[in-house]
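Sequence dictates fold. Next comes a concrete instance:
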Amino acid sequence: MGVEGIGARALRKEDRRFITGKGRYTDDMVVPGMAHAAFVRSPHAHARIARLDASPAEAMPGVIAVLTGKEIAADGIGNLICGWMVHSKDKTPMNMGQYPAMAKDTVRYVGQPLAVVVAETRAQARDAAEAVEIDWEELPAIIDPMDAIAEGAHQLHENAKRNLVYDWEIGDAAAVDAAFQRASHVTRIDLVNNRLVPNAMEPRAALGHYDAGDDHYTVWTTSQNPHVARLVMSAFYNVAPEHKLRVIAPDVGGGFGSKIFIYPEEIVCLWASKRTGVPVKWTSDRSEAFQTDAHGRDHITHAELAFDDDNRMIGLKVDTIANFGAYMSLFSSSVPTYLYATLLSGQYVIPAIHCNVRAVYTNTTPVDAYRGAGRPEATYVLERLVETAARELGLAPAELRRRNFVREFPYQTPVIMTYDAGDYEASLDAAMQAADYAGFPARKAEAARRGKLRGIGMSCYIEACGIAPSAAVGSLGAGVGLWESAEVRVNPVGTIEVLTGSHSHGQSHETTFAQVVAERFGVPIENVAIIHGDTDKVQFGMGTYGSRSGAVGMSAIVKALDKVEAKAKRIAAHLLEAAEGDIEIRNGEVLVAGTDRKLGWHEVCLAAYTGHNLPPGLEPGLKEGAFYDPTNFTFPAGCYICEVEIDPESGKTDIVQFVAADDFGRVINPMVVEGQVHGGLAQGIGQALLEGCVYDRETGQLITASYNDYAMPRAGDLPSFHVSTTETICPGNPLGMKGCGEAGAIGSPPAVINAITDAIGNNEIDMPATPEKVWRAIRASGMQQAAE
């Protein structure tokens, strides 16, 4: 490891522009003649559009056009799609309702767009949007998924009877039933995984520009995967031919999954630009974001875990209802199925597992992937079950987990996944030592003397990252492959440009990807440029989500580096009159092993481009590309321990200690990994204690539609985290990486809730565990008197 290579705590290159305000985000983009868009959105959760009169808005100052859902449909712009086919257990395909870019006759959630105003200024567009006159015929709104599937419920989509998207299952139900029949103990639990708003720091934005002279389209957008956006907008939405469409995702201020999808607004801005003849920009405000960014989670689950006489897990059955909102989103179908149920084995040997998932439409904002996407939901179910079972069986939570850990690899779970490598006990030991787990009883007693309730909770998570191989996910219904691409361009002076199909929106690619190159050739990371996010510059790639950038994106870079290195060594061997096998590259020099003969890296690069003295038959230049398709998922894992102190008089929970011990495989930059874990922990703790969408059950209005009502975690809500890593090398990719971006959000919610329930002696509490909920649970359990 060099000072900037793999394993170094290199400072982030991109921070120079970010912390000095020099970032370039979509809203910073300005095109001559640019106009602004404001959307007319539904104030109702479910209604028919009886009349729409745009003439008052069209007459207002600065208005260029008012365009409606009927017009965009007439121009042949297609409906939004879901890109992952899931079949019900009766083999019928999922019931996908038509999702127009702008509604032309019926709206199905508050905030759904039905018209757009294009005006010279943003203020003019907003004022005119309010002047559009609409008569509504209100329809019954269904908010609760249990109500949605009830007999006689109002139906959102004609093709989805009882609002059911699919009724899907995985696992062997007969084997599970047999296991439960011989079980010595069964633990049962009912859980709600609360709905969340993503709340990326940068709201979504789009700038569409149609150039009539070249018949060419460009859209700047806040996207995590610009090439996929280009493909979908051209092939499915008919916005523009793919070869005439450029998608640029510049600096993006956070995504957390919510910017994977192609939303109505970027489609409309590009289409409106052609209709009006001017570039059209739209930037969401935070109120729009609350109503229209794809929400996350929202599961209702009943689960049961069976044990034998030796307290070994022998069967797991899970029944989940997943709320999809009003429409299916791009990958929504996969989240509660192949990204959720396939991880229900956790870190444990469970011979028989069965999971049934019913996905349901409601009159709420569409739901899709949010940091972790199915993996947090699975971990929450299993780790709440395991902690509850330990209490019922009278065993220490760590002991029950140790007794059931997977210890031999590879391990085939009953739900598709094959774990390739891991050491779960190492993470558990590291976390318990860092948390001084043995000293907890003394701390609990000391807190009791102060009238406080103290609890400790544990969570042992596993997740699947680098989702692949493409053939496997294709067989499960994915509409795209999940490989990644890279091109390495070495310039004549030895500087290097890496074009990656991955996209960075906070992951530090400009630093960590450069570190991989620096490790290989010994060049400073300042001499390595990472280029991404522009479909006219970068070869087709699949973007960033699911902690895939390292295991998949970097692996593609490594494959390209292998080719560059091989060619550079061949050139150097020719110049130095040595055997290729004797050539070494290190510290910016190309050497003949065991001699003092050498060339500077830049000399070899220049020779590649002058072409004056190359080996016979070798082409000039030093540029190579590669595509990498993983052979398996990667499986990060870890153990989190949370310790809380609760005031029984107010129900307020303080996290007094949080320990995270993760196994991410090989770590490229420990500082970046720690930052990723910290961010995930903040989001997971936010879900556990504070965050949660609340809709009015009668009207379908989002009650928590601003930061006045939707509580976000602040610095004072979080402790100083103790994070560490253990290491088992992933055998499935050349760098041995597993992925780290989602772990904190996956493992932390059950650890927090397990700690709270331990403190208050009441297992019946759902996220978010607000002070009011905790206060009521304390009184229901009788712990108030115990504290006094």
Remarks:
- The CA atoms of residues 61 and 124 lie 7 Å apart.
- The chain has a mean pLDDT of 97.
- The first helix runs from residue 15 to 18.
- The chain has 21 helices and 28 strands.
